[in-house]
């Protein structure tokens, strides 16, 4: 147990409807790159199976699932939780600046 608290929780229904599969690839590659201390390629044409094998070599589950625990009760959650670093940036162009 590493004691990681997620900053953002994404509804899994958002992935197919918004077609953001790249976010999942970025999460897996980010986890591998952070563990190995190297840069990674998370472009849409990256072979996910190669990333999954590298993730498994780092000691993680092949598809990025991790065991999480309820912070209040300490009980293990029964759902498969996909966890990984995601990088967000704020756009310079804001609506208030344009009005």
From TrEMBL:
<dbReference type="GO" id="GO:0003899">
    <property type="term" value="F:DNA-directed RNA polymerase activity"/>
</dbReference>
<keyword id="KW-0240">DNA-directed RNA polymerase</keyword>
<dbReference type="GO" id="GO:0003677">
    <property type="term" value="F:DNA binding"/>
</dbReference>
<keyword id="KW-0804">Transcription</keyword>
<dbReference type="InterPro" id="IPR007120">
    <property type="entry name" value="DNA-dir_RNAP_su2_dom"/>
</dbReference>
<dbReference type="InterPro" id="IPR015712">
    <property type="entry name" value="DNA-dir_RNA_pol_su2"/>
</dbReference>
<dbReference type="GO" id="GO:0000428">
    <property type="term" value="C:DNA-directed RNA polymerase complex"/>
</dbReference>
<keyword id="KW-0548">Nucleotidyltransferase</keyword>
<comment type="similarity">
    <text>Belongs to the RNA polymerase beta chain family.</text>
</comment>
<dbReference type="Pfam" id="PF00562">
    <property type="entry name" value="RNA_pol_Rpb2_6"/>
</dbReference>
<keyword id="KW-0808">Transferase</keyword>
<dbReference type="GO" id="GO:0032549">
    <property type="term" value="F:ribonucleoside binding"/>
</dbReference>
<protein>
    <recommendedName>
        <fullName>DNA-directed RNA polymerase</fullName>
        <ecNumber>2.7.7.6</ecNumber>
    </recommendedName>
</protein>
<dbReference type="GO" id="GO:0006351">
    <property type="term" value="P:DNA-templated transcription"/>
</dbReference>
<feature type="domain" description="DNA-directed RNA polymerase subunit 2 hybrid-binding">
    <location>
        <begin position="2"/>
        <end position="99"/>
    </location>
</feature>
<dbReference type="InterPro" id="IPR037033">
    <property type="entry name" value="DNA-dir_RNAP_su2_hyb_sf"/>
</dbReference>
